[in-house]
Amino acid sequence: MRASPVATYSIVACDLEAGRWGVAVQSKFLAAGSLVPWAEPGVGAIATQAYANPRYGPQGLTLLREGLPAADVVERLTTADEGRAQRQVGVVDGQGQAASFTGEGCMAWAGGRTGPRYAVQGNILVSAGTVDALAETFEARSELELPERLVACLAAAQAAGGDRRGQQAAGLLVVEREGGYAGLTDVVVDLRVDDHPTPVAELGRLLGLHAELFGKTPREQWLDVDETLGAELRERLTRLGYAGDLDEALAAWAGTENYEERVDGAEQIDPVVLGALRRQS
Hints:
The protein is α+β, with helices and mostly antiparallel strands. The protein contains eight helices and twelve strands.
């Protein structure tokens, strides 16, 4: 029995200044985010779709790791694949060079485009407008950090028509060397919406929650905990069941609510943490 096509639109891109590579995808295909995106910091990012060949991910990253540019990686992957006529793949390498391939057997509308530091592609789309919206939004929203920029691209592509079969799943993968949780992982963001009536909107909601819990407020924007603010914090924490030493109470509450990456003692407090504590109490 033949697998169903991963009819989808996606973007692979990088922010060289931030040292980040990422992939965002939406599809009328269950859990597309588990199959399409692949990325490694300093190496590159890959999206594999249509009648997807999942081996393009690890094989492509190996070729990128060996120093091949994006265009050569796409050529190597597709030339060696007898099913290439029904494949689609996008690649951005470690230097920001991009390449996109659409086999002649992919279901219409199918195609892609590339630009500095990005490749966009899609198949079984309403029109080329979906791919154009991905590219134009990426080019226009450089003020955003890469995760938010990629989700903005998906939202614009959906507004332009998206997958003509409809919506079901979305995914976002962004990597940076030691840029993830506690500096102990390269995965900055790995979020999936596997089955949802509006997966791109839900992915945006999850990214907002991720940013609140794991984002970083510049230390100069933290607030000094003076006597007045300290009294407020103690009162609010006590109300929530965290009495005693302020350092210990704040750390205990933060650990329960998953804000521990935003807490560092009680001499200063991240405004995001203060806002969350005020909302809860």
